[in-house]
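Sat 14:20. Reprocessing the chain from the morning session after the first attempt stalled halfway. Input below, unchanged.
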Amino acid sequence: MSDINKPNRFLPTTLEEMHEREWYELDVVLITGDAYIDSPFMGIAVVGRILEDMGLRVGIIGQPDVNSDVDIKRMGEPKLFWGVSGGSIDSMVSNYTATKRFRSTDDYTPGGKNDKRPDRATLVYTNLIRRYFKNTVPIVLGGIEASLRRITHYDYWSDKLRKPILFDTKADYMVYGMGEQAIIDLGNTLKAGKDPRNIRGLCYISKEPPTEENFLEIPSHDECLKDKEKYIDLFKAFYDNNDPIYSKGLYQEVDGRYLVQNPPSRHMEESEMDKIASYPYQRDAHPYNAKDGKVKCLETIKFSIMTHHGCWGECNFCAIAAHQGRTIRTRSEENILKEAKHFTTLKDFKGIISDVGGPTANMYGYECVKKEKLGTCIENKRCVDAHRLCKTMKVDHSRNIQLLKDIRAIPGIKKAFVASGVRYDLITADKKHGYEYLKEMVDHHISGQMKVAPEHTNDEVLHHMGKPGKQTLIDFKAMYDRLNKESGKKQFLTYYLIAAHPGCEEKHMHELKQFTTHELKMNPEQAQVFTPTPGTYSAVMYYTELDPFTKKKIFVEKDQRRKEKQKEIVVAKNQFACKSKKSSSTAGMQG
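Finished this time. Tokens:
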């Protein structure tokens, strides 16, 4: 019987904690590149709670020492499997800036110093297990680092195509995507002593290709190395087969063996999402890790509420579509309100909810009816692109508005911020409730400023980014300014901007600078240099220097100094915009 109903209890991370539960052997040991933080925002904690709810004995080791056996051995060898995750962020993204400088800080490490997460953490942790446990139970990969590297992928940090991560790590299986149902199926299958290789949402290596009709062969690793257009074909098949309703399984030949990706596991239903959100998370770092200092990410996630999973925005530089999926799955209002009320019972809650949202906050509470029945559209048809919103996607903020009002009405809630990304094009597209939603935000759910992400304003660059045109931003800003004036508030918009994205040249950054100066009436203080991350179309563009949708040549800036220069153009002081392009360089800044 699970201990899930016992209050104030982390999953064990030491032998002493196991013995307190009268456990002398674990069924599953989970390893993560983050400190062990028991929160619904931390994938490893969610997996641990799901397995606990199944009645399995689960332990978690956060950021094990990779130079000794002290941590990896401290709870012994599990009975069913090891679960390995690089953490909440790809370890290479976590450890390095866009210009490949090592980051000195880590928000998921106690004390904040970046000295506990190894590069390629999933590979390192798997090797650590193999070093000290010979012929052990299966090692199962999970998390975003593994999920987005499950096929041949471009790795920016080594500047080459790498093999599927199962071949690099020599792990036994991988659960890809969000993985809730797949981890349940895996736990039950291994507990029953059965072969798990038919589980949806699972990857494994095989000597032979699958023979079932619902599998699609994708270009081999060798073909991708020799032909960049083959790599585009591979990525397109990977990207298009992430929907559980219609997607096929995939298989790829790698050095005479095959990476087999079973079809995706089904999405969680609302009641199941409610159940997972209601597990007794301690919303804190485990004392074993917390003794080393504060974990900065807790400032954001400790009292935040995740309302839904998935995003159909499909920005080409974002991996959410490939990892979480393009269909919105929501929690019920009742369950969300129950979580908010629970906050008010906690002694360290000061009445402030840091965030109410998801990957895109204003996608809560509605979806395309056609997509829910048939799955996401294929053949490059998107819900939203630079030119239009699909007519079958009926944007409706009404349910979200009511949810925010209900949260505000809870006694003990002083403020509930919406800090997640908000798509301003959806606000302008919702003719019935968009204005009301933005008024709700302006009046109650932001403080001083609202962050939006146009990323750029040049139509050609926006096309390559998969972002809406600049007129939408102009219309939104006018609406925002009007609402602030009506409310008697002086709140501002701040903008996320990207430099050196594929297709972006210096002339485009000068154009962006002119736009921010004359249309937005502001001088950007920061911009980020584009990072090509696995699982994104933008990374494919960066590697191939081709538009993956047309296979036509595009400009890609690969010189680190000139990437920095693109950034400097847009963040320089206003008078800089009036100078000639020849005098555009200023002192280098970290990306």
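Residues 209 and 258 are 6 Å apart (CA to CA).
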